[in-house]
Every structure is written in C-alpha cells, then in structure tokens.
Amino acid sequence: MPAPDSRVLLLSPHPDDIAWSLGGTLARMRGNSAELHVLTFFTQTRYAPSHPANGDPREVSRVREEEERAWARENGVLLRRATLEDASLRGYDDDTEMGAEPAEDVVRQVAEHVRTTVSDVDPGLVLVPLAAGGHVDHAAVRLAAAELVPPARLAWYEDLPYATTDRPELPPGCREVLVGVDAHRSAKEAGVMTFSSQEPAEVLPVLLAHMNAVGGERVWFSDPSTADRLRLLKG
Ligand SMILES: [Zn+2]
Q1: What torsion, rounded to 10 degrees, do the Cα atoms 192, 220, 158, 229 define?
Q2: Is residue 206 part of a domain?
C-alpha cells in the first residue's frame, strides 16, 4: 500500500470535470507515482449536447458512465461514482444552475459521500472545485468539502471552462500553485476528447487557450503544511 501522502482524491462534481480542469495535473501526478482516486457525485443527468440521446436521462447517464470509465482506465484513475441527480434533473436550466445556492439536502448527500470516501481512501491530498462561475452542483461539492476535509490536506482547483470567464472566489489568504503541464498536453487533449457527448471539440480550444494564458493549471491552498503535500504536482 502506498504511503498516504501519495494518495490523492480528486472531487469531480460531474464526469468530465477533472479531465477538463486538471487533465495535465492528473498526468503529472501519475508520472510521480501518485495513487489517483476520483469521486464523481452528479452522475444522473439528461445533458449530452453532442449525443443523439440528449434529454433522455437513462440513456445519457449510461453513455456518460461509459465515457468516464474509459477515461479512468486510460488515465490510471480509481473511480468512485455516486448516483446523485445533477442540476438538469433537479429543475434547473442553463441559466438558473449558475449562481444558485445549493439545497441543504443536496449538500448533505454530497457530504455523506465525501465523508465515506475520505475515510476509506485516507488521501494525503484532496483536490476540491472552487465553483468558479457558481454552478450549483460545483458549489455543493465545495461547501461539503470545506466542512469535512482537514485544511492541511485540502487544495482547490479552478473549474474549467467556467474559470475562463469567471474568476473563482478564492478562500482568504490562500496561495496559488501553478502546475506546469506542457509535457502532458497530449494527455489532457486525449482525456477531454474521451467525453464525446459533451462537445469536446468546441471546449478543448477554450481549455488550451486558458492553459496557455495562465501558463499551466492552477491550484490554491491555505494551510502552510499543505505545501509539502503538493510535491506530487511538481518534479
Ligand atoms: Zn461540472
């Protein structure tokens, strides 16, 4: 069993969030022999804009599960999937899902999965979405993680593509870490393209432009002792 410090848990509101936001960082950590765990929360959905089944929850959820499992296999990820209904099945639309306060019972369900997984995996580092742009599902994950993940183990990532237009609200006093991902660009591209139901050809250029503009992928931490735990993102 690897040392706890090499176990990383990445919290992914939806099946594609880690590929889009942290695809290069993930490849970099894999190269540093990290044990990579991803917990995905909102897997039940009807949203698949570039798939013929778009709008059909059962078929879309199945297609997206296949995409995510293929991505996990390809990227050496140990995947856990909750089966929560995403915003599209809870009555939100493309506009109302942005900036809404997550319902208490949704945060509670997310928290239950965070608690169980942190206990099972005992990660040295947990990567949590900042909820840039305020997507209600991302906000639920950020809120739940803030309650349950010890600050020394917690780092936040900027949610893409939202963060390309909306600067995330950063926790007070946090410090930025720029992860160089030039050597992992092709891994990120391939990862993004795995999610063929999500218009990856339109999204990828936006992600790459952001990566070029900021010089990599960005994470933040606030507890000084976390810096030590971020060595998996370097080297
Ligand atoms: Zn998402």
Answers
A1: 30
A2: yes
By residue range, what is the domain housing residue 70? 4-229
235 within domain boundaries: no
CA of 230 to the centre of ligand 1 (A): 24
Number of domains present in the structure of the chain: 1
Confirm whether 39 is domain-assigned.
yes
Cα separation of 79 and 185, whole Å? Answer: 22
Return the closest-CA partner of residue 41 out of 18, 22, 74.
Answer: 18
Residue 37, H or E segment? strand 35-40
C-alpha of residue 17 to centroid of ligand 1, in Å:
5
Q: Ligand 1 center to residue 211 CA distance, Å? A: 18
Distance of CA 34 from the midpoint of ligand 1 (Å): 24
DSSP codes joined into one string, 154-188: EEEE--TTGGGTS---PPTT-EEEEEP-GGGHHHH
Tokens of 233: 């993102």
Q: Is 66 helix (H, G, I), strand (E, B) or coil?
A: helix
Distance 16 CA to ligand 1 centre (A): 7
Q: Which two tokens stand for residue 115?
A: 């608690």
Q: What is the pTM of this model?
A: 0.97
Whether 67 maps to a domain, the answer reads: yes
Per-residue model confidence as pLDDT tens digits over 18-76: 999 999 999 999 999 999 999 999 999 999 999 999 999 999 999 999 999 999 999 99
CATH number for position 202 = 3.40.50.10320
